[in-house]
Amino acid sequence: MQIHILAGSDIRDALKQAAQEADRAQEPAEFDFNGEVIRVPVGSNPVALFGDWQRRQDAAARAYRASPGYVREQAERAERAAEAQRGVNLFLELLEEAAPLDLRRGLKLLYLYQPQLDHVDVLAPWADLAQTFGVLAPAKWGVGRKDLKEPGNEEDAARWIVGQAVDAFRQGYPPHPMLRTFAEPILRTWGAS
């Protein structure tokens, strides 16, 4: 007998429901779970069924991790991560060389190195970056995204952009990729891109 399991159900709950349905109807139950047809005989123990299901999942995961495609993908990921980390390390060196940092140089560095910072496998001193860039973007009343489109208001707009990066750094994250979109016209106006 085919039973319906709600999308998003936990496998343990689904197995328990199927076992109850099979026992009630006195015939095996089956259901689709993430593309796998699960068969539940009458009198089944849901805990044992879960153990069987988990072993199948583990075996499939081991087989996938041993596949040439996965191994190649992981090697490529490691190389991308190493390259991004080299970029972050260069960014940190350039920050040290640029001390004391001014708004134009700071915005340009953020613009240039945002892609390297925004990589899941890189390590960066987020709190230190928040402090370093925080001096460039002190809070200023009434300055916001609207300033990005005001000609002659590039400095306030740049402070807002750097402030967004500082907020991300304080939370332990890299700046959002939109930083580059917002910064580019300002840097072009300043002749720094």
Strand order of the largest sheet: 1-2
Give start-end ranges of low-pLDDT stretches. Answer: none
Roughly how many Å is the radius of gyration? 27 Å
Number of H/I helices: 7
The N- and C-terminal alpha carbons lie at a distance of 66 Å
- Helical percent range? 55-70%
Largest sheet: 2 strands, antiparallel
Mean of the pLDDT scores? 91
Secondary-structure element order, N to C: HEEHHHHHH
Return the structural class: mainly alpha
Global morphology: elongated
Please identify the oligomeric state.
single chain
Q: Give the tally of β-strands.
A: 2
Instruction: Bin the strand percentage.
Output: 5-15%
Task: Give structural notes.
The protein is mainly alpha-helical. Helices cover 62% and strands 5% of the residues. It has seven helices and two strands; from the N terminus they run H-E-E-H-H-H-H-H-H. The chain has helices at residues 11-25, 46-66, 68-97, 103-117, 126-134, 154-170, 178-190; strands at 29-33, 36-40. A two-stranded antiparallel sheet has the order 1-2. A hairpin with a 2-residue loop joins strand 1 and strand 2 (36-40). The protein is elongated and about 80 Å long. The mean pLDDT is 91.
Could you provide a short overview of the structure?
The chain has 193 residues and is mainly alpha-helical. Helix content is 62%, strand content 5%.
